[in-house]
Amino acid sequence: MVEQTVVYDSGNELAAYAAKQINYHMMGYFPITPSTQIAEHLDLLKSAGLHDVKLIPGDGEHGAAGICYGGTVAGGRVFNATSANGLLYALEQFPVQSGTRMPMVLNLACRTVSGPLSIKGDHSDIMYTLNTGWITLYAQTPQAVYDMNIIGLKVAEKALLPIIIGFDGFFTSHQKRRTYVITHDEDVQGFVGEYHPPYSALDVEHPATFGSYMNEPDLINNKYQLHLAMEESRNIIDAVFKEFGDLTGRYYTAVESYKMEDAEAALFILGSSYGTAKVAVDELREEGKKVGVFTINAIRPWPKEGIYDAVKNIKALMIADRQDSYGAGGGNMSLEVKATLQDYKMAIDTASRVYGLSGKDFYVSDAKVLLEEAYAMSQNKQVTKFDYFGQYPGKEGYNPHQYFKPLTLEEQSPGITTVTENEETGKITVKGGIPIQSTKMPKRIVGGHGACPGCGIFTNLNILLKGIEGYVVLLFQTGCGMVTSTCYPKTAFRTTYVHNLFQNGAPTLSGIVEMYHEKQRRGEIPQDEKITFIMVTGDGGLDIGMGPAIGAALRNHGMIIFEYDNAGYMNTGYQLSYQTPKGAKTSTSHVGPAQKGKETFTKDSPQIFAATNIPYIATVAETNPTDFMKKAAKAQYYANHHGMAFMKAVSVCPLNWGHQPREALKIMEAAVNSCYHPLYEVEEGITALSYNPEKNNKKVPISEFYKLMARTKHIATSPQYAEILEATQAEIDRRWERIKAKAEHPLL
Amino acid sequence: MAEYKIDLPKTNEYGFYEMRLESIGGLGANLSGKILGEVGALALGLNSSSFASYGSEKKGTPLKSFIRWCKEDQAIGVITPVEKPYILGIFHEALAGKVAVTAGVDEECAVVMNTDKSPDEIREMLKLYGGSVYCVDALKIAMEEKTRINMVILGTIAKASGFIPLKAVEAVVKDTIGRKYPNALEGNLRGIRRGYEEVTSKQFKNDDRYPYVPYKDVQYDWGYENAPIGGINPLFASMANNDMTASREGKVPVFHVEKCINCGLCDITCPEMALVFAEGEYKGKQQMVNTGVNYHYCKGCLRCVEICPTDALTEALERDVDVWSMHEPYRDFIQTKVEFEDMGSNSIVDAESGVTNNTITIEQEE
Q1: Chain A residue closest to B217 (CA)?
Q2: Which residues form the Pyruvate:ferredoxin oxidoreductase core domain (chain A) (predicted)?
Q3: Touching A: B residues 160-189, CB under 8 Å
């Protein structure tokens, strides 16, 4: 057997470690809980110079899947990891990957599909992949995650099909375990062997067309080939399982069972719960109840022969699903297991339970309840055929009281700002925005939200909303702003608030805005009821959501897009976003001997929106609150009269930028005075500076900003990063000079 | 490594020796849990697992870390939270008595507490059914040794366990943290050793003064019969009954009305909407005036202290002042009695008695 080492790692870390050992050509990824640690850990290992996997952060999971597809078409070994809605966002690419027969490995840390948004684990995501033509293995433990990552690549390349390695989000992805890894990378590489793709887009001496346009009569043949490959993969999986067992001593089988030989009743359960159910089986066996449990380590191809072998002696079977196929009378595992029983014409009494949704814990006592029900069936007792397990009705007579009255129009219109449009010149003038007067504006967001101490998001939202008079409807894309303020059963919002997922806020708010206009036009809501619509995004929401936001801008809906730029995906633990400064440390752009932080400059989102020719763009900062409030008021005026307004504030993140919460103002002053975040507006295409630090001799080099934060201090202070500092200064200067030049030019 | 192969002195019905750490995000309990997991797996020759209560990545939120050990050849099929710990580590006094941190604690349990108080005082503070209390002033030691309190508490846990060799903890810390942060290693090791040595402890038998707090999963008042459909929440601004005290790290702002020029900048910078302004009189003029700080919401970030141009807001150690005598409630609450709940709402473990301990009732004037 091969030499192995004991480590203490989580499923995610082990997936990354296997990828490091395999030394894939490429990982295209986009961070999503709970799979994110895989890219993070692989990046950490890369910064230490331990592998050369090229990590490419996609603009979203769909983009990441495209990057991966490109990598495989180009004949390389490719790796990815995702979860939940990330999987669904990428799903369109899955049949492309399998239908064109491009092997790769995807780790799926399984998580609840939204909405409502949940970050915890269940199997609602992976079931969407059943029809995509990917081989799918399921790992019960962190050890299995490691092993199946090595097994999976070999299977995929032999079958010429992509493969999913699924495992339970958090339970398996995050719990750390004592685990064995193969000591030497060469032994892993020796096991998986070399990959020689039959076709490659880089083989220019043998030109080929990848992705034919194919209708009838041909497509059915292509799919039949896929079906044959999937069938053949059964043998490949068995053979590679055996080979891996001989190498490591750990033998896997497509179906795994415990005390099924003489069992009268059994439980079928997938994933980490299988281990729990085994403990419950032991307890019931002590009571003399002949029960057993079985699971599958391969979902596709479906191991029906193994299932038959497991169940052939039992009388009753409880099937536990950690998801539901609503209206089908059971989750997907129930449907498939029952189909297998039918195939073999078996007269086994079955029942199904949907359990553990959104990571609801599955205790040994819960497993016992399910096994007891199976046992009761085997004793010819009736049980409910299909039900949920673990739901509760709520407290009888619960009559929650409101803490506040809804804010009236008058209360929300204290006249902090006044906006006038000169009818002749069209020039819009805003007055007011005095901080003490702004305290009259009631809070549309109340205290008690769960953001970190000193968080810039809520400071910025507060200033923004001080500048918005009247009724407000807010829409938040996913991010720290929303997860800290709307955790059920509570909400911090005193005004109407809507959430939609990371990439789709702008289209959703477009729909709300246009419905408002249409209902007003039809007289269904009062004609004179003015509502201001604001989309709030940050935490990288304008990476994955940039395309849809630009679409909304090009349609010029009457709404405000407000970006709090905190320069990373903070709600998932600070992965790089395109807003992260070049050279900055993040959990996917580590700084180490072999890597110097993030590779590219920060994204210039106001200029991207300026190119859409929407009527109003403004940058704002908490350092200049009057300017901020007046711009909010102007944005409101534009949104209500002319079309879209875009506002961007840089927003401190003490936790991940690495500074004391109380230093927020000092840091933001440096951000503004270094022109990292210049304050200006673009009104009907005409740029005007709001603040010029050069005028009062306030301008400072970028290093004065960077040195204040752990994320960038190395760039400002260590000679090793002089090149990055110099390049950054040059880029900041270039952007600043262009803004100034535009401000000076009457047409720009 | 496995140089200190040991047999577990006691295990539960499933064969596990289990520990639970109660903390606040940012204090390093997650790392302590990971190190204890590694001590089991890599130094003591045990099978081992550890994990934290999961949520979004935030600082200042109550969190739990769980460690589960068993014999090397036993599989770890139980992956649920630790319900009945043999060791309970409490990283912050603010957690005591509010969140139900003592669920599952009985006479078998050793409670390790970061405090400058005595075991008798802590027993009262925690309303402890019974068990051994090990007090360590981890904050003081950490400051003196330039380490973090999680390292000190690791030392105390080793002591309280009665069987974890201090050398095993030191070896793992050397091997993991030491490699990553070599400069901090000496301080960390001194912190661990002092945590092991500078402990005051006392055994408490159950004397029927306080009830046993059983472990219980969270259930809210809304369920499938009475919750509005679609997860839609019509209880706007309902977070206003959250109390964020546990998020503060020792310091609070104090408002001095006589120095205030009512510029409103504190209300601009405060992310917590914790400054309460109202119509009033300043220099003979009717205008908005600052009436003070709402300490339910204040997380002690001190942004307001930094921005205040006249020292009308200054910082103080929370233990030196009585924040509730200075507290300024929101003025537009329509309830006269508001039950405030400790924030974090206990993402994984809860206990029934915790719910009553969990509330601070304030009387408000209409």
Answers
A1: A361
A2: 263-366
A3: none
Contact B56 A434 (CB under 8 A): no
Whether A434 and A581 share a structural domain: yes
- A42 with A76, same domain: the answer is yes
Distance, CA of A109 to chain centre: 11
State how far the Cα of B331 lies from the Cα of B291, in Å rounded to an integer: 10
- Interval B296-310: pLDDT, tens: 999 999 999 999 999
pLDDT of residue B2: 63
Contact present, A645 and A683 (Cβ < 8 Å)? no
**A186 and A299 co-located in one domain:** no
Hey, are the CB atoms on A361 and B80 less than 8 Å from each other? yes
Cβ separation of B56 and A451 shorter than 8 Å? Answer: no
Ordered domains of chain B (ranges, CATH) = 17-217 (3.40.920.10), 236-344 (3.30.70.20)
**Closest by Cβ to A402, choosing from B77, B224, B334:** B334
**Closest partner residue to A175 among B47, B51, B273, by Cβ?**
B51
* Residue ranges making up the domain that contains A427: 417-692
Query: Per the CB < 8 Å rule, is B271 touching A455?
Result: yes
Distance CA(A654)–CA(B177), nearest Å, equals: 23
Give me the pLDDT at residue B339, please.
Answer: 80
Query: Residue A445: its chain B contacts at CB < 8 A?
Result: 273
pLDDT at B60: 63
Check A177 against B76: CB less than 8 A apart: yes
> Among B49, B236, B241, whose Cβ lies nearest the Cβ of A493?
B236
- Supply the pLDDT for residue B220: 87
CATH of the domain at A321: 3.40.50.920
Say whether pLDDT at A491 is over 80: yes
Q: Residue B245: pLDDT above 90?
A: no
The answer to whether the CB atoms of B239 and A440 lie below 8 A apart is no
Q: Tell me the angle at which helices B149-161 and B185-197 cross, rounded to the nearest 10 degrees.
A: 40
Q: Which of residues 288-317 of B touch A (CB under 8 A)?
A: 288, 290, 294, 296-297, 299-303, 305-307
Looking at A422-577, list the stretches that DSSP marks H as alpha helix, in order from N- to C-terminal side: 435-438, 456-466, 480-483, 505-521, 541-544, 546-555
Chain A residues touching residue B94 (CB < 8 angstroms): none
Which of B274, B305, B334 shows the shortest C-beta gap to A404? B334
Q: In a 10 Å sphere around its CB, with 0-12 CB exposed, 13-18 middle and 19+ buried, how is residue A212 labelled? A: exposed
Scan residues 136-155 of B and list those with Cβ closer than 8 Å to A: none
Domain final residue pick, A223, A248, A273: A248
Q: Are residues A270 and A139 in the same domain?
A: no
Find tokens 């057997």 and name the residue.
Answer: A1
Q: Considering only CA atoms, give the Rg of chain B.
A: 23
Determine the distance in angstroms separating the CA of A5 from the nearest CA of chain B, rounded to an integer: 10
Quick: pLDDT tens for B153-203: 999 999 999 999 999 999 999 988 887 788 889 999 999 999 999 999 999
Other residues' Cβ atoms within 10 Å of the Cβ of residue A138 = 25
Q: Looking at CA atoms only, how far is residue B98 from chain A in angstroms? A: 16
Q: Are residues A382 and A427 in the same domain?
A: no
Cβ pairs A/B, distance under 8 A? 292
Q: What is the average pLDDT across A342-371?
A: 97
pLDDT recorded at residue B358: 30
Q: What's the pTM value of the predicted model, to 2 decimals?
A: 0.95
A240 and A286 in a common domain: no
Among A515, A564, A558, A565, smallest CA distance to A645 is for: A558
My answer on whether A339 and A241 are in the same domain is: no
- Give, for A705, the enclosing helix (H) or strand (E): helix A702-706
DSSP classification of residue A662: G
Scan residues 31-50 of B and list those with Cβ closer than 8 Å to A: 34, 37-38, 40-42, 46-50
Q: Considering its fold, how many domains does chain A have in total?
A: 3
pLDDT by residue (tens digit) across A460-485? 999 999 999 999 999 999 999 998 99
pLDDT at B184: 87
Residue recorded with tokens 């400054």: B275
pLDDT mean over A555-580: 96
